[in-house]
Amino acid sequence: MESLDYTLLGLAILLFSVWCFNFLLHILAIVYGKWKLSRKLTPVVPLEELPGVTILKPVVGVDPHLYENLETFFSIKYPQYELMFCIQDEMDSAIMVVQSLVQKYPDVDSKIFIGGKHVGPNPKVNNMAIGYEAAKYDMILVSDSGIKMKEEALMDMVLHMKENVGLVHQMPYACTRKGFSSHMEKIYFATQHAKMYLTANFFNINCATGMSCLMRKNIIDEIGGLKHFSQYLAEDFFLAEMFINK
């Protein structure tokens, strides 16, 4: 009986220790996020001197929010950027959605690439390969089709790209939308996902997210371009690792 009491006490201490550790991670993430994500930068050079940005949008299939998500990229407040929509399957119904937006915003530099290019086992890299090769700007933003961009977000990312910085990624923030999957997404990204990513960044651990990631193309080209990372399924991790080692 006494042995059982000690076992329960040890288990209680262990569970309490885990809870305390998890609670501290939450506090650290909140404090670090407030400090890191609340700083608003202003351009130190004229807007026309800011570097151009190529936005790669890998698109697969149509979800209820695809049109709404993609449309936000046509109203970004940034002096020069191009939108490169990459669609693997020529029968994908997403093509009609993208074409309607391209026609709606003829003044926005946008292109559609269909078919992709097989350069390795990573399907996302295969999808973006042709768009990447056609990019005319040195700054590359890889942005998933599920991302909704605020007007000033690209400007903020570029301004954080200092001389000693090769990669800037965004923390996902889930919008309130209808549907069970949207609720689950919001719960995950606003709790466990955000906590671990912020904590990892605080300790300089490679934990970049490839959902919305701004990178210097010339550095990627030095080791063979985006196709070099097609050999990895977690291409975002190895891209970040490459920039860290640079």
UniProtKB/TrEMBL annotation:
For this protein, what is the EC number? 2.4.1.80
Which pathway does the protein contribute to? Lipid metabolism; sphingolipid metabolism; Sphingolipid metabolism
Query: Cross-referenced Gene3D superfamilies, in alphabetical order?
Result: Spore Coat Polysaccharide Biosynthesis Protein SpsA, Chain A
Q: Name one Pfam family in it.
A: Glyco_transf_21
Under Gene Ontology molecular function, one entry of this record is: ceramide glucosyltransferase activity
Task: Tell me where the transmembrane regions lie.
Answer: 6-32
Keywords of this protein's UniProt record, alphabetized? Answer: Glycosyltransferase, Golgi apparatus, Lipid biosynthesis, Lipid metabolism, Membrane, Transferase, Transmembrane, Transmembrane helix
User: Where can this protein be found?
Assistant: Golgi apparatus membrane
GO BP terms? glucosylceramide biosynthetic process
Q: Where does this protein have coiled-coil stretches?
A: none
Highest taxon of source? Eukaryota
Q: Which reaction does it catalyse?
A: UDP-alpha-D-xylose + an N-acylsphing-4-enine = a beta-D-xylosyl-(1<->1')-N-acylsphing-4-enine + UDP + H(+); N-(9Z-octadecenoyl)-sphing-4-enine + UDP-alpha-D-xylose = beta-D-xylosyl-(1<->1')-N-(9Z-octadecenoyl)-sphing-4-enine + UDP + H(+)
What broad class describes the main subcellular location of this protein?
A: Golgi
**What GO CC annotations are associated with the protein?**
Golgi membrane
Report membrane topology: Multi-pass membrane protein
Q: Which family does it belong to?
A: Belongs to the glycosyltransferase 2 family.
- What name appears for this protein in its UniProt entry? ceramide glucosyltransferase
Species assigned in the record: Mytilus galloprovincialis
Q: What is the lineage of its organism?
A: Eukaryota, Metazoa, Spiralia, Lophotrochozoa, Mollusca
